[in-house]
Design brief:
With 139 residues, the protein is of the alpha/beta class. The protein has 3 helices and 7 strands, in the order βααββββαββ.
């Protein structure tokens, strides 16, 4: 019997106030989106929490523009991570309450993660670049 190697999840970072808001959001939407909320709460629980001023410049926060590549297809995509009320996929604004949104939060440039897509198929996503919103204090 062969065993598959365990894929380690990369270190993630979150801003303290955003982690609190995301926890509240995930708990409020748990009945509607149980799998995504569970994934998001798991990411929050394992995150290194920082104040906004000490947040790593290359880590994905709410409002960050993220460029990533899907390693299976080679497709590169740039999106902005937003709260559900601001989501607009045609404008590249992806909700935190989607599988990709919950997977991107806290990741840093160069990191990869194995994460399920909407159909439950695992994808390896690698962060190519992260740009912070103007209203995020720099470190």
């Amino acid at each position: 019997m062969t065993t598959r190697p365990t894929v380690r999840k990369p270190r993630v970072h979150m801003i303290d106030t955003q982690a609190d808001a995301l926890s509240t959001l995930a708990l409020a939407k748990e009945d509607d989106l149980p799998e995504i909320c569970e994934m998001l709460l798991d990411e929050i629980n394992r995150a290194n929490i920082h104040t906004a001023k000490k947040f790593p410049a290359d880590a994905v926060a709410m409002g960050s523009q993220v460029t990533y590549v899907d390693e299976a297809s080679g497709a590169e995509r740039s999106v902005t991570l937003v709260f559900p009320r601001d989501a607009d996929i045609s404008a590249g604004r992806v909700s935190i309450l989607t599988p990709i949104g919950a997977g991107l939060i806290g990741m840093t440039k160069g990191a990869s993660i194995s994460w399920p897509d909407r159909d439950g198929k695992k994808r390896i996503l690698t962060i190519i670049d992260v740009s912070q919103p103007a209203d995020l204090p720099s470190s």
